[in-house]
Automatic annotation (TrEMBL):
<keyword id="KW-1135">Mitochondrion nucleoid</keyword>
<dbReference type="InterPro" id="IPR043502">
    <property type="entry name" value="DNA/RNA_pol_sf"/>
</dbReference>
<dbReference type="GO" id="GO:0005760">
    <property type="term" value="C:gamma DNA polymerase complex"/>
</dbReference>
<keyword id="KW-0460">Magnesium</keyword>
<dbReference type="InterPro" id="IPR001098">
    <property type="entry name" value="DNA-dir_DNA_pol_A_palm_dom"/>
</dbReference>
<feature type="domain" description="DNA-directed DNA polymerase family A palm">
    <location>
        <begin position="58"/>
        <end position="333"/>
    </location>
</feature>
<dbReference type="GO" id="GO:0042645">
    <property type="term" value="C:mitochondrial nucleoid"/>
</dbReference>
<feature type="domain" description="DNA-directed DNA polymerase family A palm">
    <location>
        <begin position="379"/>
        <end position="637"/>
    </location>
</feature>
<keyword id="KW-0548">Nucleotidyltransferase</keyword>
<protein>
    <recommendedName>
        <fullName>DNA polymerase subunit gamma-1</fullName>
        <ecNumber>2.7.7.7</ecNumber>
    </recommendedName>
</protein>
<dbReference type="InterPro" id="IPR002297">
    <property type="entry name" value="DNA-dir_DNA_pol_A_mt"/>
</dbReference>
<dbReference type="GO" id="GO:0006264">
    <property type="term" value="P:mitochondrial DNA replication"/>
</dbReference>
<dbReference type="Pfam" id="PF00476">
    <property type="entry name" value="DNA_pol_A"/>
</dbReference>
<dbReference type="GO" id="GO:0003677">
    <property type="term" value="F:DNA binding"/>
</dbReference>
<feature type="region of interest" description="Disordered">
    <location>
        <begin position="730"/>
        <end position="751"/>
    </location>
</feature>
<feature type="compositionally biased region" description="Basic and acidic residues">
    <location>
        <begin position="734"/>
        <end position="745"/>
    </location>
</feature>
<dbReference type="InterPro" id="IPR019760">
    <property type="entry name" value="DNA-dir_DNA_pol_A_CS"/>
</dbReference>
Amino acid sequence: MDQMVVWLNKQDLPKELQESTDNFGAIIPQVVVCGTLTRRAVESTWMTASNAHPERIGSELRAMVQAPPGYNIVGADVDSQELWIASVIGDSRHAAMHGCTPLGWMTLSGNKSEGTDMHSVTAKAVGISRDHAKVINYARIYGAGQNFAERLLKQFNPTMSETEARSKARKMFDMTKGKKFYYLTREYVHEFGDHPFTKWQAMELAKAHGKKVSEMFETSKWVGGTESAMFNRLEEIANSDRPTTPFLGTGIWCNTVIEDCCWFFKLPHKDGPSRNVGNPLAKDYLTKFSDNVLAGDTESAEQVLSIARKLSYWRNNRARIMDQMVVWLNKQDLPMELHESTDNFGAIIPQVVVCGTLTRRAVESTWMTASNAHPERIGSELRAMVQAPPGYNIVGADVDSQELWIASVIGDSRHAAMHGCTPLGWMTLSGNKTEGTDMHSVTAKAVGISRDHAKVINYARIYGAGQNFAERLLKQFNPTMSETEARSKARKMFDMTKGKKFYYLTREYVHEFGDHPFTKWQAMELAKAHGKKVSEMFETSKWVGGTESAMFNRLEEIANSDRPTTPFLEGRLSRALEPKSMSDDRFLPTKVNWVVQSGAADFLHLMLVCMRWIMGDNIRFCLSFHDEVRYLVKEKYRYKAALALHTTNLLTRSFCAHRLGLHDLPQSVAFFSSVEVDMVLRKESKQDCVTPSNPHGLKRGYGIDNGEAVDIYTAIEKAGGVSPRWYQFDDSDRDVKSNKKEARDVGNPPR
């Protein structure tokens, strides 16, 4: 269903088709031309399409592609293509004559009906079906070994014993591939004779003379099989200094000059050097083209890359967006002021898993992962396409540095019970991006990386990522960085931020060994020398000397407690991860991450309850995006809703601070930097959302003006916040028509 179809206009068709009432179009092939090591093309639908089968729904797919009237589709299958290639390679080296090897003869002259073709001969000799022999034959030609053949035989016939499968596989390989023998080099032939040695004999002889097999013997050869000549030639090509195909083209060699014109380099995979990159146009590499780390050498290549960048977001999200559940409302279900409108009004039913993660975060595949509008992403204006009906506004805000503040205030509360008493706490409250004193700028400057990269690594570290992960990220950000440099920068960053881990002796051992810190290695050696476990001689380890040490010590203390709970609403960790269920620290990073992110879930729940308490039925919750909330409110109450959000932030942060034993709140975090009052669901009210699929933006394309970013002072002024009863509403404006007394009680907080 995700195929890209281009329907042609009448004027683009041949004249003989322009009078037809049918529609004509073409499917744009989504093919990776050299998608494998073997330079084969890769495509996920048509190249893997099944042939029509009476018991397979949809297997007639290929037959649904038709030629227009007056045209035909012409094609052919190459008979036994790869089998012929393999056999003729063997023939060419053996006697330079077609069919001079058993495999070559069977390929050219063998007949299925007479039982003389390759698969029938193998099946008859080993005692299996021809279909099974065919599968194993091709697997062997492609490099599969005897063990693989044994597994296939067991898979084809589960009742076959392992001994029988091994016997049949050995018989098949002896007959086809032959046996491998080693031949002495010239200098040893006179001493030991010019005869073949088995692999075991070659190893024993080399061992007896203190040599390697490769020093005494030439390259091994297959002997006595129908395919021996073919395998000898294939291995000879594969083991040459510069393997090339016998026909046209060249193999791919990293850091090697090909035919004095081309250089191939291994692209670094984000998950480490052991992984191979499948597609250089994949999502992870598109930014490298924007940064000119990767580039094409022609205008057409640059255009391909530009199109790939633009299509990336839409290709990945189109199906989810098109599958949204929309409910269109009838006229009688709308407010009176909308009855005369000619527009249609509806709502998208949220497909949200409320507690979809370990941290109790909500999970939803489209809106919670929606991209912000980007000038090079088709479809990235998605959020701005959700509009409030006439007479209503969408009001919302982003919680400024929510999880960073939660982590820092947890550390502050345990260190000295004062806001900003730790380096991390001070940077969170008073750090300034423009002055370079915020957390990310400080880290970037100290380590020598960009602020954006430092920001990614900082959050990853707070969520429990270790030094190895930071090394991989640094290599991913800058592929030219050496492993040594990446390791050095990561170590420097962790020493400066997280600090170093030290162990402290329990009281009973302090008198004997002194009250000083021990490194992990020293603690293990001391415990080992006394026949104890580290946990028996030492208290819980602590981080020391880093800007975030106090925070990590407190987070790990919570994570390792008997019943880990969030510090705000005392939400419990899954019992499967509680210490009584886990005897080691394998999941400590996960539990540390849980403390912060589950604390953020508490923060959201407190905000939702507080907004309901203040606004009552005069506001409708739309959606939350982790640290962002959006509400639908009548236009005349938009500024009251904005002030209510500012007040909610104040009350929620005050509650969280009070639960941690802090009885004040710095003004820098008391209120939102701004509350967005808008007509659409875009992230920033001043953003016009110009994208390739929305080239005119919201202003010119839809007539939607910019919204407002309302700070606390503007909200107080416009909402009548100087009045002690600013939060009260008229009963006539309530959406709920019954049970008005209960609604008034909810909407009016006690003075």
